[in-house]
Amino acid sequence: MAPMGGALLGFREFYPEDCALRQYIFETFRSVASTFGFEEFDGPILEPLELFAEKSGPEIAEQLFHFEDRGGRSVAMRPEMTPTLARMVGARAAALRRPIRWFSVGEQFRYERPQKGRLRAFYQMNLDLLGESAIGADGEVIAALIASLKAFGLNEKDFRLRLSDRQLWRHFLASRGVSDDGAAGILNTIDKMGREPESVSREKLCSIVSTPVAEELLRSVKELSQCTTLGALGAFFRSNGHGAAMDRLREWEELFNILTAMELAQFISIDLSVVRGLAYYTGFVFEAFECGGESRALAGGGRYDNLVKKLAGTDMPACGFAIGDVTLGNLLREKNLLPRGVCNCDFWLAFDDVNKFIALRCANLIRQKGRSVLYSLVEHLSLTKQLKFADRAGARFAVLFGFQDETGCSGENLCVLKDMRTGNSRTISINSLLEECACLT
Amino acid sequence: MAPMGGALLGFREFYPEDCALRQYIFETFRSVASTFGFEEFDGPILEPLELFAEKSGPEIAEQLFHFEDRGGRSVAMRPEMTPTLARMVGARAAALRRPIRWFSVGEQFRYERPQKGRLRAFYQMNLDLLGESAIGADGEVIAALIASLKAFGLNEKDFRLRLSDRQLWRHFLASRGVSDDGAAGILNTIDKMGREPESVSREKLCSIVSTPVAEELLRSVKELSQCTTLGALGAFFRSNGHGAAMDRLREWEELFNILTAMELAQFISIDLSVVRGLAYYTGFVFEAFECGGESRALAGGGRYDNLVKKLAGTDMPACGFAIGDVTLGNLLREKNLLPRGVCNCDFWLAFDDVNKFIALRCANLIRQKGRSVLYSLVEHLSLTKQLKFADRAGARFAVLFGFQDETGCSGENLCVLKDMRTGNSRTISINSLLEECACLT
User: Fold this and answer.
1) Averaged pLDDT of chain A
2) Residue at a domain's end among A283, A306, A334
3) Is A343 near chain B, with CB under 8 Å?
4) How many C-beta atoms lie closer than 10 Å to residue A373's C-beta?
5) Which of A19, A260, A378 sits opposite B42 (nearest CB)?
6) What is the pLDDT of residue A315?
7) In terms of CB atoms within 10 Å, which end of chain A has fewer, N or C?
């Protein structure tokens, strides 16, 4: 037959070297999340379509792999974890001890035009803290994000976390007389300001508020976006007089005190121009970005106190973040921070025909101690050939059974242990080998 | 809004306790596969529909979640890994060092009526050895399967591997004058014999061969199926004279010698009534079954020397197996072989308002050593309350910062380490705590 085609556009095949890196990224994140006391959960990859439409509106279907299943039900491959998280937490809200600390490592699917750093199937590492509205919870989640990125060997020269605050923006807009209804459209405009010509932003603002107000907004939004210290934020709001904003700034201080105590404050850049498009954020929002280079976004998150209520009917303040595997993997590769392929062969067993079954018995016993063992699966090979295979497999040690003529080792229950790195050999009893094998490195 | 519905029928939500068990099963399998020198790979969850139709015929679509994507392409959620494996191996056949030892842990999807032990989304742990036709390869794969099940604590009273052989069956049928074309239909009938009335089997056989031949076949198939030792198989084929079968039995002996050397032969039951429905098996086939109880199938596999050629155009002998997570998980649960929830909190930090930031600094440093740390995220809590939280979280140790009146500990840079299991406390310098924390258990 004609050889089959490849994988679908935007989907990846993971050959062993790719899979090892994927697992390294997942396991590193899992370790950090565990040190913060977070527990892993997961949900179905296929969900009712309405689960996602409920959160994001019916137009989300345009970006999804969705279809009608054979039972006539509209289903979609999940584009994100949050709606599933909300459902699961909501269903057991009464039984779960708060705060709920959950993380997940899951594949997500979006029908988008594939491009660098953006695929149709990708993994997200999510971490969410639910049931706690105190600033300590925001601090905990931000600390977990920074600690996760640090665990890959990234430092403050490699990435920075841009911190902003929906609540501060709302106070600011309220002080300008903008209603909560108008705020959404204005925040949406602010979110895009860096990427659109000023004339477009001005036009959008004018469609929401009167022209003089729009002009004043445009000016003060720019001014606020340029505040990069707590002091500057304080000065801005003092001179633009709004008490609620000053109260909120005390919570900013609290957050910085927490992150300073944890020796993580140097990773934070105050940047109010970050708004994050998703409408459901209610408080602190943040994005982790690569410093310099392509300035790619590595992760994002924030506080979303109303979403679980909206989706699952349960009051549940929450904050969290998501790290994508594609951009992070690319960055780690460029920075040479991905581990080299690990040796997958601790012991290569070489044996002559007489000693084959003695060697196989040892293979079984060494493997039971957690060490990896390989040998040739075909018979009657010369010692030279078997050692060549050992070398190719990157074996750490070779163990020779028999081959009396070549090794001079003739006693029963003896074998020769060869260090493939140094080339040194020593004769050793099989019992000693079995005792030592767990510790030989 | 009205709370949303639940997950789709046949799909699972993994709450932390479920997720921990899933990860335990995956990690145990990964460890064993690694000791045999196998490397993990993975492929896309969504594939072109024709990838599966090529192997199993177009009627496979009936059992799949398949749809037309927005680009008009017929796609399906993978029901198994083997076609993807064949494509990936075929695409790099020239570069990959043989034998290829690959395993995978992946979710699969089938549109079937959900029932006990059978879901619409489930995980399979696959292990395949490709590029080697020697019996040693069959031995290696069977040994890896038994070692995997043993690693969960299952022993020869819990499960057995029923071993059969498509090649022996073909020799047998050839000796009865059945052509290779007729053999497929007859093997299919033999596969179902245990589950169908004899009259049905007889009728099926009569539609393929003449009635007298069918009668003789029925009798000798039953006789062959009752052979449970190598000696009995030898006697059967000697008296039913077929030289090729006797040659094949020497390969059986070789396989048993390998498994005996590895101290695994006691897990094998010779059972020629196992044929395995899938048409692509060409040699040894096997199924791991629960002993007693519901006699559920835990895993299955065998040699499939022609499939990679058929799917990817590359000559590539192969053998392998798949373990499903659902039945295995149920069995381990019933046998009480699943680990208890592990403590997710090594240290609970309790602090008064003055010492909060000292405690947070310690939290960060202890976490960097890989230990998990929790504390209350709200302020101004009494020591009693914080210790109650520590207890509820199952903390191994509590560390008290400040609370001079309660603890009598007043020095700077001192804290109190409380063993939550024994209730014992000792005053310790913060520096000593940071040094010891990695080793405290």
Assistant:
1) 92
2) A334
3) no
4) 25
5) A19
6) 95
7) C
Query: How close, in Å, is residue B2 to chain A by CA atoms?
Result: 7
Residues A289 and A205 both lie in one domain: yes
pLDDT at B14 over 50: yes
- Give the pLDDT band (50/70/90) at residue A384: very high
Domain shared by B424 and B299, yes or no: no
Q: Please name the member of A45, A360, A371 whose beta carbon is closest to the beta carbon of B107.
A: A45
Among chain A residues, the shortest Cα distance to B366 is held by A35
Q: What is the mean pLDDT of residues B119-145?
A: 97
Structural domain tally of chain A?
A: 2
Q: Do A123 and A257 belong together in one domain?
A: yes
Q: For position B119, what pLDDT does the model report?
A: 94
Average pLDDT over residues A280-301: 92
Q: Encode burial over B151-180: b for 16+ CB neighbours within 10 A, e otherwise.
A: bbebeeebbbbbbbbbbbbbbbbebbebee
In a 10 Å sphere around its CB, with 0-12 CB exposed, 13-18 middle and 19+ buried, how is residue B5 labelled?
exposed
Task: Measure in Å the smallest separation between the Cα of B312 and chain A Cα atoms.
Answer: 5
Q: Quick count: other Cβ atoms within 10 Å of Cβ A340?
A: 8
Range of the domain at A386: 347-439
Res A4: pLDDT = 63
Residue B70 touches chain A, beta carbons under 8 Å = yes
Which of A12-16, A152-156, A178-182 is least confident? A178-182
Touching check for B27 and chain A: CB below 8 Å? Answer: no
Q: Which of residues 251-280 of B touch A (CB under 8 A)?
A: 257-258, 260-264
Q: Give A25's contacts in chain B (Cβ within 8 Å).
A: none
Ramachandran assignment for A243, one of left (phi > 0), alpha (psi -120 to 50 degrees), beta (any other): alpha
Quote the ipTM score.
0.94
State whether B20 and A39 contact (CB < 8 Å): yes
- How far is Cα B351 from Cα B361, in angstroms, rounded to an integer? 12
User: Quick one: pLDDT at residue A2?
Assistant: 44
Per-residue pLDDT tens digits for B68-81: 998 899 999 999 99
Distances B230 to A24, A57, A71, B114, B237 between C-alpha atoms, Å: 46, 66, 50, 40, 11
The answer to the question of residue A8 being in a domain is no
CATH code (residue B408): 3.40.50.800
Is the CB of B8 less than 8 angstroms away from the CB of A102? Answer: no
- Among candidate residues A257, A301, A250, A255, the one with its CA nearest the CA of residue A280: A301
The beta strand positions in B90-137, using DSSP E, are 100-109, 121-130
Whether B250 is in a domain gets the answer: yes
B356, B321: one domain: no
- Select the residue of A7, A75, A364 nearest B262 (Cβ to Cβ): A364
| Contact flag A261-B360 (C-beta cutoff 8 Å) | yes
- B-chain residues within 8 Å CB-CB of A46? 8, 11, 65, 77, 109, 121
Q: Is the dihedral of CA B209, B211, B213, B215 positive or negative?
A: positive
Q: Is the pTM of this model over 0.90?
A: yes
Q: Any CB–CB contact under 8 A between B109 and chain A?
A: yes
What is the CATH classification number for the domain harbouring B306? 3.30.930.10
Check residue A241 and give its pLDDT: 67
Rounded to an integer, the average pLDDT of B330-342 is 88
Same domain (yes/no): A131, A235? yes
Is the CA virtual torsion B92, B303, B158, B118 positive or negative?
A: positive
Whether B182 and B309 map to the same domain: the answer is yes
Predicted confidence (pLDDT) per residue in A248-260, tens digit: 999 999 999 999 9
> For residue A78, what is the DSSP state?
-
Q: Do B69 and A111 touch (CB under 8 A)?
A: yes
B412 pLDDT band (50/70/90 cuts)? Answer: confident
Segment 207-226 of chain B within 8 Å of chain A by CB: none
**Do residues A297 and A434 share a domain?**
no
| Beta-sheet pairing, A39-40 with A284-290 | unpaired
Nearest CA in chain A to B144: A364
- Which residues in chain A touch residue B51, judged by CB atoms under 8 angstroms apart? 4
Q: What is the mean pLDDT of chain B?
A: 92
Q: Is B57 domain-assigned?
A: no
For an interface test with A, which of B255, B264, B346, B364 has the most A Cβ atoms less than 10 Å from its Cβ?
B364
B242 at interface of A, judged by CB pairs closer than 8 A: no
